[in-house]
Amino acid sequence: MKLAFSTLGVPGLPLPDVLRLATTYGYHGVELRAHPEEPVHPGLDLTQRADAAAQFKAAGVAVLGLAGYARVAAPGDDEPVIEEIRRLLDLARDLGAPFVRVFPGGGTEQSREEADATAARRLGTAAEYAADLGVRILLETHDSHRTGAEAIRVLGPVGHRQVGSLWDVMHSWLGGEQPSETYAALAPHLGYVQVKDIASAEDTTPLPLGKGVLPLAECVEVLSRHGWDGWLCWEYEKRWYEAAAPLPDLLGPGREHLARLLNDSA
Question: Relative to the CA of 232, which of 23, 144, 172, 223 has its CA 20 to 30 Å away?
C-alpha cells in the first residue's frame, strides 16, 4: 500500500513546504483540502493549476485526491451541487489527481430514502462528466452515511465505475461497524482509505497514529488479507482542533507506525 497525508493537518501551508514534508518523511502522495483557505482550490486559474502540478511532478509526489465539500444528499436543488462537483473534477484533471472526495450531507428533515435517492441521482449525473475527465468521485463514510452499510445504499443504485467510496475509519467505527464489515460493504467501490486516531468516541481530538482507540491494525489486516494495494491517507484534523499537536512533528513516527502495521499484516 502507498502512504499519503492530508493537508487538513497543515492548514494553509504553502505547497513547497507540504511537498518538503512528504519527501522528507517518505510519503508517496498528498490529499489536498480543496478549500479557499488553502493554496489549491477550484478558484485557481490555469496558470496556477499548471504551476501546482509542476511542483508535485518535480518533487516526485502524487496528488492523491482533492478533498471537496460538496454534499450530495443535502436538501435543495441538484444543479448547484452538481456544478460544485464539476468544478472539483476540472481541478483534479488539471492537477493529475485520480480522485475527488464528496460528503453525503443528508439533512434531518429528509427521510432516509429521500436522502439516498438524492445522493444517487446527483452522483449518477456527475459520473458521466467524471468519466470524460478520467477522475473518480468518492463518497466518504461521513455524517449522514458514516458506515459502509449506509454508503452502499447510495453507491449500489448509482452503479457507475466513476463513483466509488472513501473509507474514513473513524466514522465507520463511530457508527458501530467492524472493519471487516465496512470492507465487505465497500470493497467493490473502494478508492482509498483515510486513517487517523482519536482518544475516544466522546473526544475526537486527533492523536498520533497508534496512540488512540481506533482499530487501525484491524483495518490494515483486513485490507492486506484481501490483497488490497491502494492508498492509506492520514487525515489529521488539525484545522478543526487548534490545540492538537503540530502534524509535521508526527509525520515521521506516523509513517513508521503504518509501516509496522503493514509489515505485521503481510
Answer: 144
Name every residue whose Cβ is closer than 8 Å to that of residue 232 and which is 6 or more positions away in sequence: 1, 2, 3, 4, 192, 193, 195, 220, 258
- The string of pLDDT tens digits covering residues 14-32 is 999 999 999 999 999 999 9
Rounded to 5°, angle at Cα 82 from 76 and 85: 125
The CA distance from 204 to 241, in Å, is: 9
Beta bridge partners of 3: 232
Give the predicted TM-score (pTM) of the model: 0.98
Q: Which residue, 63, 144, 139, 67, is CA-closest to 111?
A: 144
Report d(CA 230, CA 2) in Å as an integer: 6
pLDDT in tens, 73-92: 999 999 999 999 999 999 99
Strand partners, 145: 142
- Rounded to 10 degrees, the C-alpha dihedral 140/5/67/72 comes to 0
Asked whether the predicted pLDDT for residue 266 surpasses 90, the reply is no
Residues near 194 by Cβ (< 8 Å), separated by ≥ 6?
6, 31, 140, 166, 167, 168, 169, 170, 233, 234, 235
Beta strands in the chain (DSSP E): 2-6, 29-33, 62-71, 99-103, 136-140, 163-168, 190-195, 231-234
